[in-house]
Task: inverse folding
């Protein structure tokens, strides 16, 4: 029997190692959301007593999110429907607001599709010019390459803090500093980073940052954009004047309240959480590297990668086939980002770190979480070993 002391919803029959795609809700989070579905259901924009109750809860949540990332004031937090919307709002919104100052934007080739496709939208429909920076074989953006890609008309740089597929953590302070020196807005997609490392927007010097609640045991469909005071964005949906006219639409009160609770838990438990997850990840890596031949770790070394991430290539095999075989044993893993799976071809991230196409196709991503434990890792490794052995014997 597996023991599990965490405050998680238990799904006893499933061995879940896909936490970069989403994480399970904490019970504490569900508990605080509950009354905002049942009793406190008013629209936060209504001026009656009940509306004020919702509005108060939203403002309290805003304070919690500001605290998590070290924002100066609560006005800098804009609630959205998730990381995807935060990325769309900041990239398209800043581009449209500052287009008269220039139409050049710099990003990297390993960004989440929400950033990459927002950039492509600007290229295609609004004649912006984009520079997609290459990364090295560990997934790092070269600060010198960033410097030399800056032009007179560059208005925005967007580089993710940590990658969702290979876990590489960028030297974001250094990159943000280059932007600041050149008077260019700097945005970072910190959807994966904030749940796993201390991240202070003022200390690091970023102007904008994207967050998503479901990547840190909060609900899906809610996120936030941190936008430094004084920076304008053109709203990307037309409608009401919610979120200080930057994001129209009735705010998701239960979702936001849940996100704030999840945020408080991250803030209070970050160190112990990261240590626990890192220990599990390292235990996994030690076992697989000593018990399975011909495997490689894609991305940066353990020091410069997210504590929960292990992206492995299994020589000669197909990642999708491994995923399918593990899935038959109730094990959930991924072969890339969830958004990219199902689509044909090699992950754009693995392509960007220029590993061989065959190596990329044999990649499987294992991402660990709070509710995992050592015996689950043993179950995973034992089944992985059998699967790899079996598939290789067929060759
Ligand atoms: C999950 C993810 C997103 C998208 O967030 P959603 O809330 O799922 O829309 C954006 N960027 C990164 C790095 C992610 O991992």
Result:
């Amino acid at each position: 029997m597996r023991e599990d002391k965490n405050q998680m919803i238990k799904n006893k029959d499933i061995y879940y190692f896909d936490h970069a795609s989403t994480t399970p809700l904490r019970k504490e989070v569900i508990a605080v959301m509950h009354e905002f579905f049942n009793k406190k259901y008013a629209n936060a924009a209504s001026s009656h007593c009940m509306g004020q109750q919702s509005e108060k809860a939203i403002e309290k949540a805003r304070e919690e999110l500001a605290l998590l990332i070290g924002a100066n004031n609560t006005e800098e937090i804009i609630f959205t429907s998730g990381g995807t919307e935060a990325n769309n709002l900041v990239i398209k919104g800043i581009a449209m607001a500052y287009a008269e100052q220039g139409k050049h934007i710099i990003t990297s080739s390993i960004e989440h599709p929400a950033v990459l496709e927002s950039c492509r939208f600007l290229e295609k429909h609004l004649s912006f010019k984009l520079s997609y920076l290459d990364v090295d074989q560990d997934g790092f953006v070269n600060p010198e390459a960033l410097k030399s890609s800056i032009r007179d008309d560059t208005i925005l740089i967007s580089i993710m803090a940590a990658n969702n597929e290979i876990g590489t953590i960028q030297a974001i302070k250094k990159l943000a500093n280059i932007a600041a020196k050149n008077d260019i807005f700097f945005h970072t997609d910190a959807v994966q980073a904030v749940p796993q490392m201390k991240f202070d927007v003022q200390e690091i010097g970023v102007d904008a940052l994207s967050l998503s609640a479901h990547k840190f045991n909060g609900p899906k469909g809610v996120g936030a954009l941190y936008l430094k005071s004084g920076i304008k964005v053109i709203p990307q949906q037309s409608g009401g004047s919610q979120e200080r006219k930057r994001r129209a639409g009735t705010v998701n009160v239960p979702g936001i309240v849940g996100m704030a609770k999840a945020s408080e838990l991250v803030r209070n438990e970050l160190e112990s959480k990261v240590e626990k997850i890192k220990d599990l990840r390292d235990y996994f890596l030690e076992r697989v590297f000593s018990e399975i031949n011909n495997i490689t770790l894609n991305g940066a070394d353990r020091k410069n990668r997210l504590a929960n991430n292990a992206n492995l290539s299994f020589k000669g095999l197909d990642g999708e086939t491994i995923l399918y075989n593990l899935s038959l044993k109730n094990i959930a893993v991924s072969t890339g980002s969830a958004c990219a799976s199902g689509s044909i071809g090699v992950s754009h991230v693995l392509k960007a770190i220029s590993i061989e196409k065959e190596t990329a196709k044999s990649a499987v991503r294992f991402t660990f979480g709070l509710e995992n434990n050592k015996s689950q890792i043993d179950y995973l490794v034992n089944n992985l070993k059998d699967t790899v052995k079996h598939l290789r014997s067929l060759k």
